[in-house]
UniProtKB/TrEMBL annotation:
Residues 1-18 have a biased composition (Low complexity). One of its GO terms (molecular function) is methyltransferase activity. SUPFAM superfamilies: S-adenosyl-L-methionine-dependent methyltransferases. This is Class I SAM-dependent methyltransferase. The keyword Transferase applies.
Amino acid sequence: MTTNMTPGNTTPGDTTPGSDPEPNPHATEEQVKAALADSKLAQVLYHDWEAETYDDKWSISYDERCIDYARGRFDAVAADQPLPYERAMELGCGTGFFLLNLMQSGVAKKGSVTDLSPGMVKVALRNAENLGLDVDGRVADAEKIPYDDNTFDLVVGHAVLHHIPDVEQALREVLRVLKPGGRFVFAGEPTTIGDFYARWMSRATWAATTKVTKVGPLQSWRRPQEELDESSRAAALEAVVDIHTFDPAELERMARSAGATQVGTATEELAAAMLGWPVRTFEAAVPPEKLGWGWAMFAFNGWKRLSWLDEKVLRKVVPPKFFYNAIVTGIKPGA
């Protein structure tokens, strides 16, 4: 694995080669307050804060389960493409979930991971190294990607566009760094209606769980108060970093306006989201040792069954805007 992530003392978003800043996993109360008025600072603080525990929090793995999931998202909009791509980049990589699993499935030979959070880039590079994948990484602002024109054959991202202040500018940058004929695939973007019901269910689950575990024998199911307080602080930042929700048709319009051709979208998770969001919130509210293998199998198998229902039945009768996640793809013209 190669990397040009070099420690330095730069400000968030500085992408000068060789000057990537160090992760900051321990944001102060003052920094959190400042971040509430600065979405890009909030992105750095929140994702640096979450980086080392992010894979556990979201049940991310780099085995068959998540390889199949990532490939399924890709194939939903780009199944007809010849593989592998020579070089791919992940925008807003987080811990590398989408690109690393796509590379393991044969989608790309070589990868580059980018994120505004130094902590996330650090973890993504470590994950790539552990998997033996050819990946380099940079701390990068999605609105000013620090790579030359016509560098990549493929750009991917998962749950990233809704964090970016100027989505259309980011898509223009994506098209700039793509080679003519290159493709982008962005998955995991919340729809406006899906985000509404997901947040409502999450808040209700959190309130019910934290209330019930205050009493009697159920107190052993309550996380220590300091952990709950930290989760609340993280939630305050999360409310700042989650900037957008999308109508699938609006995503297509932005992609075309940025200059993409052959634009298409797909949506997923309706019934599956109704289970997934309460499950994730419950897991965040109780001590992890209380939830064993049986719980994990219930959550995963339940999600799989409901995803089958979404794909085979509900997608045929329910309008796309009611599903939780949107996927968008497009091609750089000129090949």
